[in-house]
From TrEMBL:
Enzyme class name: ligase
Compartmental location: Cytoplasm
Residue ranges of domain GS beta-grasp in the record: 23-103
Any one Pfam family match given in the protein's UniProt record, by short name: Gln-synt_C
Main location: cytoplasm
Domain GS catalytic: 111-380
One cellular-component annotation, GO: cytoplasm
Protein's name in the database: glutamine synthetase
Coiled coil: none
GO biological process: glutamine biosynthetic process
EC number: 6.3.1.2
Keywords: ATP-binding, Cytoplasm, Ligase, Nucleotide-binding
Organism name: Paramecium tetraurelia
Length: 380
């Protein structure tokens, strides 16, 4: 029974009666780890047409590492809603920001408010993002142990080389899950641009974009939510560790492809080379602070990464911190790819960092770092 429950593929076992007219809104938020999501359901007896139809709600922050038991309540402020691909229409997934009881102080690891302020300031330049989210699929090999899907328990598969964009039973472990995720994201209305099997066996990627400003980060978080939920159904743990398996196995990144009205205009390529690359280099160390934890284990210079301590770039190079695609060079305008962010980033922080450096003169970097530092402190 437990087995069956763990791998339940269809949870719609009890259909609603036709006279039940409700909207189930799944309120979703980032918890006190800064990476895991939590969610709970609220039943509405009326139709939800706009954000203001969804009220603020509360939860027990002492159970999510965001509050102590005495002063435990945290507010949920709905900020984006999309179709719920699991429950179907008219039900919704609702991404929320978190606030302390004064309704003004952001709770631990809520950075969206700051990202919104930064994106608002840069709005006239229309910053676009395409985010590549890499992840591993892990299966359970015991109560607490996990190991990549398709790998022999405690052992290793054939070395890398044949898994990237692979087909075939020997090479591709978990396509059904990645495909289910892509479809669910499209059904939800998310801007997902594609999927591919990655360089390590049982490693995949999905891309969010092209999306403007804060929407890219909102959609990435919602796509992560859907991925975890699909993982539940397949009995698979989704892993965003920058280097989950030590040794000669690729780590997971979250490349940020970026452009704005200046890089997309005539002379954009020159502008990227002469202005943006030097600025990105200047703020390299500060950026890395905001580009995910344990990223130093991933940025080794091997496996299509650059070295942690050194900023490098190249036309069409996958060994640099930043790649300027050959199409950008060819057209003389376009976008660049920041390859440094780790898979476990908060896209609000990374998107803000790039926009701040390229469009706002780095004026928000200290604030961004401060906010992250503050959230990382143990609870009072
Ligand atoms: P890679 O070759 O690095 O694996 P991908 O195809 O996985 O590249 O991802 C590239 C991403 O760049 C896509 O998601 C795409 O939406 C995005 N992209 C393309 N053009 C632009 C642009 N002008 N601005 C921002 N992002 C872009
Ligand atoms: Mn890619
Ligand atoms: Mn990739
Ligand atoms: Mn890439």
């Amino acid at each position: 029974m437990t087995e069956q429950l763990e791998n339940l593929r269809n949870f719609n076992h009890y259909e609603f009666n036709s006279n039940v007219k409700v909207t189930l809104a799944e309120y979703i938020w980032i918890d006190g780890t800064g990476l895991s999501l939590r969610s709970k359901t609220k039943v509405f007896h009326h139709e939800i047409k706009q954000l203001s139809d969804l009220e603020w709600w509360t939860y027990d922050g002492s159970s999510t590492e965001q509050a102590n038991t005495k002063w435990s309540e945290i507010y949920l402020k709905p900020v984006v809603f999309v179709r719920d691909p699991f429950r179907g229409a008219p039900h919704l997934l609702v991404l929320c920001e978190t606030y302390l009881p004064d309704k003004k102080t952001p709770a631990r690891y809520n950075f969206r408010w700051l990202a919104q302020e930064i994106m608002e300031k840069a709005k006239e330049y229309n910053p676009w993002f395409g985010i590549e989210q890499e992840y591993y699929l892990l299966k359970r090999t015991g109560t607490t142990h996990t190991w990549p899907l398709g790998w022999p328990n405690g052992g290793f598969p054939h070395p890398q080389g044949r898994y990237y964009c692979s087909i075939g039973e020997r090479n591709n472990f978990g396509r059904a899950l990645a495909e289910a995720h892509q479809r669910a994201c499209l059904n939800a209305g998310l801007k997902i641009a594609g999927i591919n099997a990655e360089a390590a066996p049982s490693q995949f990627e999905f891309q969010i974009g092209i999306a403007q400003g804060i929407e890219a980060a909102d959609h990435l978080w919602l796509a992560r939510y859907i991925l975890e939920r699909i993982g539940e159904e397949f009995g698979i743990d989704i892993n965003y560790d920058p280097k989950p398996i030590k040794g000669n196995w690729s780590g997971s990144g979250a490349h940020f492809n970026y452009s704005d009205s200046k890089t997309r205009s005539e002379g954009g390529y020159e502008y990227i080379l002469k202005t943006l690359i030097p600025d990105l280099e200047k703020y390299h160390e500060q950026s890395l602070f905001l580009y995910g934890s344990n990223n130093i284990d991933r940025l080794t210079g091997a496996h299509e990464t650059s070295e942690y301590g050194k900023f490098t770039w190249g036309d069409g190079s996958r060994g640099g911190s930043v790649r300027v695609p050959i199409i950008t060079k060819e057209l003389g305008k376009g976008y660049f790819e920041d390859r440094r962010p780790a898979a476990n980033i908060d896209p609000y922080l990374v998107g803000s960092t790039i926009v701040d450096i390229t469009l706002l003169g780095g004026t928000y970097l200290d604030k961004l770092k401060q906010e992250l530092h503050k959230s990382a402190q143990p609870l009072q």
